[in-house]
Amino acid sequence: MAGTALYDTFARAPLAFERGEGVWLETREGERFLDFAAGIAVNSLGHSHPHLVKALQEQAAKLWHVSNLYEIPDQSRLGERLAANTFADKVFFTNSGAEALECAIKTARRYHYAKGAPERFRIVTFEGAFHGRTLATIAAGGQKKYLEGFGPKVEGFDQVPFGDWAALEAVVGPETAAILIEPVQGEGGVRPVEASFLQKLRKLCDDQGMLLIYDEVQCGIGRTGKLFAYEWSNAVPDIMAIAKGIGGGFPVGACLATAEAASGMVAGVHGTTFGGNPLAMAVGNAVLDVVLEEGFLDEVSRKALLMKQGLAEIADAFPDVVAEIRGTGLMLGIKCVVPNGELVGAMRDQKMLAVAAGDNVVRLLPPLNITDDEIREGLNRIRSSAEALSHKLKAA
Ligand SMILES: *Cc1c(COP(=O)(O)O)cnc(C)c1O
After folding, report:
1. What is the pLDDT of residue 396?
2. What is the pTM of this model?
């Protein structure tokens, strides 16, 4: 948009929302949109969830920030709860996904350094990956469009094609510190990694003394119907980056690790001013209160099935628009025949929000507490969008 003081780095839709409730967003003009973008998998419990609003308001009236010079009881509590519900023993809180990944990368390198093998600093990643926009995470992601023009690529990342075991074995060497993978690629086009592939990665890492790092920034916190997507595979990581859903809309990220993997991260080697502050921790704990409630995650799986079945019917009805439905849980992708931006646009015409992804996919990431009726409403709008595009194709 012309005349704005903001960086031109975002191609924003001409929409401004003023308020939200659950799966609905409302513009200043009072137009209501069904939100299946959820701030890119961030608004895990929708907008204005009463338990989250209360937690934030109560904390806001007490204390906002003290820095990590002092103890933050709610940070310890959230760390303990994350550890109790995962493979991890140790947690470092950040403000974003990229920072969580930075911590994961540093933790892996520092582990080998502390073991007397500083030459082991290389990390293997997979094509289509997205790990953030810092200098190290664009090197990890390896996408040309994000690296171009930003100077020398941070050294130490080796990328192999998605799911290519032979290429992976060929690139692993005496300098390899870790393998970094999203159990479900988000940005790359909603591509789940086979459980058997994660199990093979686990074994390879064990055999070679490498660390296995998961990026669950997008697929974690209940998105796939388990608290973390890796639980479907029983292949546990040594280190894991999370963010997005854990804050429910408040900026929170975290790097989780086993005590062994985190053993190089001693006092003074890493830090953050804002990470884990009382406001963020109040909201993070409130998100866990809801997601860990008995039955919540089973409901996510049940609703996901409903949604996937409905989407499959739409794919069958409009093969000129939809190529396939992919994904898992409430992290679903519509692989398009038409350019994915056209489907996102047609959905916006139906007052519904979704997110484009790589591989010509439209991502559907509704709040995890969406109701069956809201899913049906969403499916109706997606059907109307596909129908409109199909008519346009036939008329052309
Ligand atoms: C969004 C995302 C990131 C980066 O998170 P930011 O908060 O934008 O820095 C990293 N990894 C994955 C898988 C993501 O989806």
Report:
1. 85
2. 0.98
